[in-house]
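Entry 14. Ran structure prediction on the chain below.
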Amino acid sequence: MNMKDLLIALVVLVLLCLLGPVVVGILSALVAVAPYLLAVLLILGTIAFFRK
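Output, structure tokens:
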């Protein structure tokens, strides 16, 4: 493993450390919002069903 490979590995590690929390935050936000989205979709679906 030469210096260039080591540098690339270090950069990848830093990027993972920086982007990891962002990805986790987005996923947790989606999980928090998902029930409300499902409820809205169900309500819209029932309205569309009874509108026929």
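The chain has one helix and no strands. Will compare against last week's run tomorrow.
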